[in-house]
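U., I forgot to send this yesterday:
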Amino acid sequence: MVLTASEVAPARRVVSALTQFACAAVVAAVVAAVGLFAFARVQWPAFNSSNVTQAITTVLQVAALAVLAASVWMLRRRRWPWVARVLSWAGLSGLVTATLGMPLAATKLYLHGVSVDQEFRTEYLTRFTDSAALHDMTYADLPPFYPAGWFWVGGRVANVLGTDGWEAFKPYAIASLAVTAAVAVVLWSELVRSDLAVLVATATTAIVLAYGSPEPYGAIIALLLPAALVLAWGAFAPVCLSGGQDRHKGTPQGTRQGWGAVLGTGLFLGLAATFYTLYLGLAAFAVVVMAVVAAALAWRAAGTWRAVIPVVVRLAVMAAIAIVVALIVWLPFLLGVLGGAQLAGSGTATHYLPEAGARLPLPMFHASLIGLLCLLGTVWLVGRASSSRRAQALGLGVVAVYLWYLASLALTAVGTTLLAFRLEVILLVLLGAAGTFAFVDFTRWIVLASSDNPRVRWSLVAVGALGAVAFTQNIPQVLAGEITVAYTDTDGNGERADQRPPGAASYFAEVDETITSQLGRDRHDIVVLTADTTFLAYYPYYGFQALTSHYANPLADFPARAAAIAEWAELETPDELLAAWDAAPWRAPDAVVFRQSAEGYTLRLAEDVYPNDPNVRRYTVTFPKALFDDPRFTVSEVGPFVVVTRAGSA
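Result:
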């Protein structure tokens, strides 16, 4: 059988795209690894006490932007295209590495250290560093509820390299963002002209670094989302629209169309499902909005409901592909639910409403560079809505974000939210991508209006370049709070990177040694009850109770566990306590790490108090010392902690 030229061309494009994806990932990984290794070889001052690292960061950012500018120039001139592509991958990954790696060069911790949300993320990475099994980050004998994709890969990398999970978090987060930025360039190149792809990828990467990088696994989805929406609209648009030639690419409207776009969209949704549930929800909702619009346009154009069928079929195929990919990490949890496990105490994950989530974000009216870019993007989205599929795709994405916000605001009346405030970075990325296209279009129109005056052209180029430098060099200042926490938190070695006296976590190594020596088992065979859950982020013990109900597995019954702990504190004898532990429906603690007080041994626990903001109330439970005055317990004092182990616990 001999393939025709029309059949060979798509296959070649697929092979070429896959090759570029792989090459981009390798180049970015090498750039990130070399950069982080070089940064670690120098004794830098702490970012929060010196301006040296900011200065070096700025120099490296300008160098990365210069490499990207050279790439754009070569792509526009059609010179050395493969060299230009490699430069774009290296430049973008270098920008990520410099922007995050240099300010954090003097600490082993990532943005926000191991405080609050970053604590459970570090705990999750530590879990998969210890074992490849899909398992809950905290609770013994439970499948994972939080999507494990990003954490599983990072844990396995750390395991291969022989690095503790907490220490691998920073380099893995930065490298994964660098790789994604390079991959995004390749994806954009399949949708728009190559030089324009570099520009929009650079803009969206800078925006995500500034506003989304503290959540690296979410930032990966945010980086890919604008291009994925353009790809998704390319799957629906041919059914309902007639397209002309896009000015930025020789293919109709600059989008990959048909079943290739269906496959790509399904894979992206599946990836989002394995990384971040909220962004999956928004992406899936945006795709459904696109499908509804496409179906309506097809029905109107054809005058019959049968015209809707191709749209529904494509949407169904996308969903099927996404579900298959999602099951890679979700299957154990689904099997647990189907097996009869109760979702006790579920729902508090959405119980959070900060001020930013109580109003609609309108960044296009902010007096800043990002505000100006979003304003340009808004004007372009409206002005090009009838003539550009890119504008239609990004515009529908923006509409989906605002609809999600409105739904979240409305749901506050029934006691929950859709965590819309976390979608602000998605809105900024979508409007930023549109703003990049707008700047290119407006620049071309101004140059044409000036009779193609080269002085006007170069003036506009200079404005764009200086704007890019101004925004990127300010990213460390946008992240200054998160960077400071990375220097002030005590790391897994018991040290603070700012050279100040460490906190209580400096005793964790001794606590760990006490537990393992007294129980004589591997850490992953031991359940520890403690309110100092940072200990679980550094060492792969299982915990009896999570930090808060908002991150607890709904199969774990967080409220009942909290009530049980309070009841145990009211008991009077060791026999009563041990009997209560043995009668509990969950695996009992093998060890307890208390804080010591004059009244006894204390645990500081948390409960959900939504709709209040803050949404968590801390309270203290005090155990009488007499409860552990028994040969079946071993009590050890370690700094501010009291470690209690149960003899003969299984």
